[in-house]
Design goal:
heterodimer; A: 422 residues; alpha/beta; Spore Coat Polysaccharide Biosynthesis Protein SpsA, Chain A; 2 domains; two-stranded parallel sheet; 11 strands; B: 546 residues; Immunoglobulin-like; eight-stranded parallel beta barrel; 21 strands
């Protein structure tokens, strides 16, 4: 029996009508009716300003919204059927939509966009977040020009962020990907990025779509695949990243999508990262990121409590994952008071590397390993907040750089653990 | 073949535009003439055209290719005599071909006796036949049309020591239509040719007849009044004759030139033409459908006149700045191809001599609502010579065969009014009538076939149009209808094969008959009608209810 396609007949029919394009804008959504209207209009404006002559399409891949999100996207097509409602445009701009049944975090949306990009022979593609309230029309050009004009294959964003925003990125994803893959990509996992049709096609053909419903964090795998495949990669500064309130319960899914994806990439990419020493800067348009300093309320006490509780309750789990010295050190600091508490960079890097090695060995369920990292990450965040509460932008950057260098310095430790398995 | 008696003959016409100078030289002086044109009438009859539009052939200093007339009631000696013209006219009528001539009504040459008298003194009785001023300050709201050559619409006359008004070149002073004597004189000019048997006039530059302070001096109510007066006299004294307006304007501004069916019979649809080229390059029907959506309804007796190329530059006045930039970049990368606000190129070179695109463009020309005009030489895919100045590069001698001077003239090549196209691709040894007649699949024979098919039905000339808007924007599809007849036209603007689903439920039960091969296609049902189209392919289907 033939494998059921994740592209529906109706979607294929829409793609046939769109035909070959130069620019493809992908917009994964799930119940984004509140924000999507202004975002698609900004995207449309970005296309008309930056690419007025190019053949372009906006493709919405929706994870079963019940709030009418797809209708808001398709309603902005520029065509000759409703010319009165169009902004001025040289050519037709299709805005089409398709739905999928899997979980919104499954990666099916991205896979669908990659398939559409290949079928439409798109030269340059961009994926935009349906939640970016701060999006500007220029973001399209910033993410697409390097691909369309300058021959880059992947454009990742940099943002102006508050110093305490994106802590998973600054404390784990950025320093670890940098140390392992040797390229300084600030936002290796982003919901906004540009890429070439050839990179998209290459990734679509890779064996990363094992699960029938897709794979979480596939966007990070995409970045890592681009680095591993020696594709041309650059960064582009977009502007301010809007603040999104996160609940404590959001951390584990976030870890699954990001850290899980990173850990699972390490085995197939071993030949690549095991030969990398040090790191190189990626070409960047604009700044490497900017830091905002205004006060931000964070419940630090709760973070430390969750760390201490986690270390105590998950001791048996940690015994499977961590080396005895690391676990002992964690238990020691868990007993410290708030003022004395300090989760050092070295201890944090050792913790993460030991988690990565254990993930690779599957000492216990991989999902349990990822979940177990959550309380430890909160402890590290507590220290980061304490260290940087009065820090200037430069100080914050220096601290992040220090952590990165620690990840690079201790990389042989990870390699040693990895090889000991073999 | 007698001329049809239908007063709406222009609706079914296929018009062929030619300058007598360019077509055939009968006396070996290097310049085409009426006797030569008459000798080629059989060729035009065989091609299938039903009307000839002659560019100005009147006595003229020829500083604007005859649009600077020095005598309205005679023939330029280079082209023959009045008797030669009358003989040509009769021969054309014998073949069922009508003759449309130019009436350059807005201005004369500065060599015209009227102007010479007018400038001779401020007291001359014809002083007021032109527009004079002591300063160059009036009518500042009027744009300058020939931007590349003129700095002002006023020119200083050293003889009468005052300024005269000119919308075009400074050697073309504008007539003063506020003067009733001028209006009467222009009617007398028309009457002169109408009594001879001329079937229609193409009125040149009609928006500019009257000037008023505080306006842009275009499309004024007073101008319309002048034109309506001419039309009334024409209908009263010469029913069945036709007036064709040259007014390079947006559709909404063009509409008043039809009046209530009491001004012009026809008008050129200038904004459509560049958008056909744009749609083809963009591979997107949007520019074409949008301009046709903006085109207002016209009175039942009126008709649009459609063209792909003509004797002027491919005008880009009626497009936006962004569209103009796009057209320049895609059709005239070489800046020498640009002139004024346009592109001075012929059809075939514009389309890279791509037979499929040339056929598609002609297919649209023949099937969109209006009367098509074919520019001489485009039926064989003639090229141009951008090294010749002004618009002369698209006005080179007709290429009849591969022999001496391409069969145009027996004169020494250096004495021809303009050099023949000689490059390897478009030169007369490669592109000529004789060679294409001998080849069944030549472009000339294809043109003959499409004209025959077009003339096999009245639906293209007189029918309504209904756009289908399939979701595939590379497909331009419409149904032309006239009474019980319906023709489905499907054009693929893309360079690649396309699939398209058409909503033809309204024609459920009809059998599409492809009009060129006369083959049947599957009957139209309730489901979307699927067609696959090759690159730049087009279909004309007669929808038969059998």
């Amino acid at each position: 029996m033939a494998e059921e396609s994740y592209l529906t007949d109706d979607f294929l029919r829409q793609l046939i009508n769109v035909g070959e394009v130069d620019i493809l804008v992908g917009l994964p959504t799930h119940n984004n009716a509140k924000t999507i209207g202004s975002i698609v209009r900004t995207i449309q404006s970005g296309i008309l300003r930056g690419f007025p002559r190019e053949r372009a399409v906006i493709i919405n891949v929706d994870g079963g919204s019940r709030d009418g999100t797809p209708d808001l996207v398709t309603g902005i097509s520029i065509d000759d059927v409703r010319p009165a409602s169009n902004p001025y445009a040289l050519r037709t701009l299709h805005s089409i939509s398709t739905r999928y049944a899997a979980s919104p975090a499954s990666g099916v949306a991205f896979r669908t966009l990659l398939a559409a990009a290949e079928l439409l022979r798109a030269k340059a593609c961009v994926v935009m977040s349906p939640e970016s309230a701060n999006i500007e029309p220029e973001w399209l050009s910033k993410l697409l020009y390097p691909v369309y004009r300058d021959g880059f294959d992947l454009v990742t964003p940099t943002y102006r962020r508050h110093k305490f925003e994106g802590l998973l990125i600054t404390n784990l994803l950025y320093p670890m990907t940098r140390a392992l893959y040797g390229l300084r990509i600030r936002e290796a996992y982003s919901l906004e990025f540009g890429f070439s049709g050839r990179l998209g096609s290459q990734f679509l053909g890779q064996n990363v779509w094992n699960h029938p419903t897709g794979e979480a964090g596939v966007e990070l795998r995409f970045t890592l695949a681009a680095i591993a495949g020696r594709y041309r990669i650059c960064q582009s500064f977009l502007g301010e990243k809007d603040h999104v309130e996160r609940r404590a319960a959001d951390l584990v899914p976030a870890l699954r999508e990001t850290v899980g994806a990173l850990f699972s990439a390490l085995e197939p990419d071993f030949r690549v990262w095991s030969e990398v020493a040090g790191s190189q800067a990626a070409p960047t348009t604009g700044t490497d990121g900017e830091v905002l300093l205004e006060p931000l309320r964070v419940n630090r006490k709760r973070l430390r409590e969750m760390f201490s509780t986690g270390v105590a309750e998950l001791e048996s789990v940690f015994q499977s994952i961590l080396s005895p010295p690391t676990l002992a050190e964690l238990q020691r600091i868990a007993r410290l008071g708030e003022e004395a508490f300090h989760y050092s960079a070295e201890l944090w890097v050792r913790t993460v590397y030991e988690f990565a090695a254990s993930y690779q060995k599957s000492v216990i369920s991989r999902d349990h390993i990822i979940q177990a990292l959550a309380p430890l990450f909160r402890g590290r965040v507590f220290t980061f907040l304490m260290e940087n509460r009065n820090a200037s932008a430069d100080d914050v950057e220096n601290n992040i750089e220090g952590l990165c260098l620690e990840f690079e310095r201790l990389k042989p430790y990870l390699l040693q653990m990895w090889k000991s398995r073999e | 073949m007698p001329l049809s008696r239908d007063v709406l003959w222009y609706k079914d016409a296929i018009i062929y535009q030619v300058h007598v100078r360019t077509f055939h030289d009968s006396n070996g002086d290097g310049i085409g003439d009426f006797q030569g044109l008459e000798e080629k009438l059989d060729y035009l009859q065989e091609l299938g055209i039903s009307a000839i539009w002659l560019m100005p052939f009147f006595p003229s200093p020829l500083r604007d290719d005859g649009y600077d007339i020095a005598d309205y009631n005679a023939v330029h000696p280079s082209y023959g005599t009045l008797e030669d013209f009358q003989k040509f006219l009769a021969a054309a009528h014998d073949r069922g071909i009508r003759i449309i001539i130019e009436l350059v009504s807005n201005h004369t040459s500065d060599q015209h006796p009227w102007f010479q008298e007018s400038r001779s003194s401020r007291d001359n009785p014809r002083r007021d036949w032109y527009v004079w001023s002591d300063t160059d300050s009036p009518y500042k709201g009027a744009r300058i049309i020939f931007l590349d050559t003129e700095k002002s619409n006023w020119a200083w006359d050293p003889i009468s020591k005052s300024f005269y008004w000119h919308r075009f070149f400074s050697h073309q002073p504008d007539l003063n239509y506020d003067n009733p004597e001028v209006r009467e004189q222009m009617w007398q000019v028309m009457k002169f040719w109408l009594e001879m048997g001329v079937d229609a006039f193409r009125l040149d530059a009609v928006p500019y007849l009257v000037e008023r302070e505080g306006t842009n001096c275009e499309n004024l109510p007073e101008t319309h009044a002048v034109l309506k007066e001419l039309r009334r006299k024409l209908d009263e004294q010469f029913p069945g004759r036709m007036l064709l307006a040259e007014a390079n304007q947006w559709p909404a501004e063009l509409r008043p030139y039809f009046g209530d069916g009491d001004e012009f019979h026809m008008a050129f649809h200038f904004p459509l033409m560049p958008r056909m080229f744009m749609g083809l390059k963009l591979e997107d029907r949007k520019p074409i459908t949008e301009i046709l959506q903006q085109t207002p309804e016209i009175p039942p007796s009126c008709q649009w006149s459609l063209f792909l190329r003509n004797h002027d530059e491919l005008t880009l006045e009626m497009v936006t700045d962004m569209e103009r930039d796009y057209m320049y970049d895609t059709y005239a990368e070489n800046k020498t191809m640009r002139l004024n606000l346009g592109i001075r190129r012929r059809l075939a070179p514009l389309l890279d001599n791509d037979r499929r695109r040339i056929e598609l463009m002609n297919g649209m020309l023949m099937s969109l609502p209006g009367t098509p005009i074919i520019y001489y030489g485009d039926e064989i895919g003639m090229g141009d010579n951008i090294n010749l100045g002004d618009r002369n590069g698209v006005r080179t001698p007709m290429q009849w065969n591969g022999g001496w001077n391409g069969g145009f003239s027996t004169a020494a090549p250096e004495s021809l009014y303009a050099p023949l196209i000689q490059d390897p691709v478009y030169g007369y040894p490669a592109v000529n009538v004789l060679r294409q007649k001998a080849s069944e699949h030549s472009f000339l024979n294809w043109m003959q076939r499409i004209i025959t098919v077009r003339r096999s039905t009245g639906v293209f000339g007189r029918g309504s149009i209904e756009f289908l808007y399939p979701a595939n924007h590379r497909i331009l599809a419409y149904v032309r209808r006239l009474e019980n007849e319906a023709v489905l036209v499907v054009n693929n603007l893309s360079s690649t094969a396309q699939a398209v689903e058409l909503d033809l439920r309204r024609y459920k039960g009809s059998i599409p008959i492809e009009m060129f091969g006369k083959n049947m296609f599957p009957r139209v049902g309730e489901l979307p009608y699927l067609l696959t189209m090759g690159p730049y392919q087009f279909y004309w289907f007669r929808l038969r209810r059998i």
